[in-house]
Write a structure and sequence with these properties.
Helices cover 0% and strands 43% of the residues. It has no helices and 15 strands. The strands form four sheets. A four-stranded antiparallel beta sheet has the order 1-2-3-4, with no helix packed on it. A hairpin with a 4-residue loop joins strand 14 and strand 15 (183-186). It is globular and about 50 Å long.
Length: 187
């Protein structure tokens, strides 16, 4: 495996995994039920996966030259309206993850994404991404609205501060780490 991510909501018990070359597959599993909920082929290697804390049916992936979001296939429900136990989205058969459209404004930002993380507190559908070029791109990904770039911040480190390599969110902000022990905290 190249990388994996667990659902922040442990009730969901989702595990997203991305395989290494030559297969390049993204799959989301219910690890409690041992069921693959959805999968898809990838065009490029993935270096980071995350599941949205706002909508655990949304998985995000970033790699050297891309950022993509997918939604799990619709769940199969029994007569009571609850998800049928032990069944994948297609009644026991794997279904293709549905790729979401690129956020409005993202194509205007030439970027090589190095990492991304979902805002946790509040879990409001905000996705913080960082790029090799040193930019922070904040994306809104909520089910009730189209995906869109909320804000782009040029140069998260001072000049010669290094390339941003990792981002992690905390209550009310995020921290970015990079080359040469660079650290930047945003609130």
């Amino acid at each position: 495996l190249a990388c994996m991510a667990l659902s922040p909501d442990l009730e969901a018990s989702y595990l997203a995994v991305a395989s290494c070359a030559p297969d390049l597959v993204l799959a989301v599993l219910d690890w409690r039920e041992n069921v693959v909920l959805g999968r898809c082929s990838l065009a490029a290697p993935v270096s980071r996966l995350a599941l949205s804390p706002l909508d655990d049916d949304v998985v995000s992936a970033s790699g050297e030259s891309f950022l993509k979001l997918w939604r799990l296939p619709a769940k199969k429900h029994d007569e009571s309206g609850t998800a049928a136990p032990g069944e994948g989205a297609g009644g026991g058969q794997e279904e293709e993850l549905r790729v979401l459209p690129d956020p409005a404004g993202l194509r205007d930002i030439p970027s090589t994404f190095t990492d991304h993380a979902w805002s946790l507190d509040p879990a409001d559908g905000t996705l913080v991404t960082i790029t090799e070029e040193g930019d922070i791109v904040i994306i809104l990904a909520q089910a009730s609205a189209p995906l869109r770039v909320l804000r782009r911040i040029d140069g998260c480190f001072p000049p010669r501060g290094g390339v941003p390599r990792c981002v992690r969110c905390f209550a009310g902000g995020f921290a970015i780490g990079g080359d040469s022990a660079a650290l930047s905290v945003w609130t």
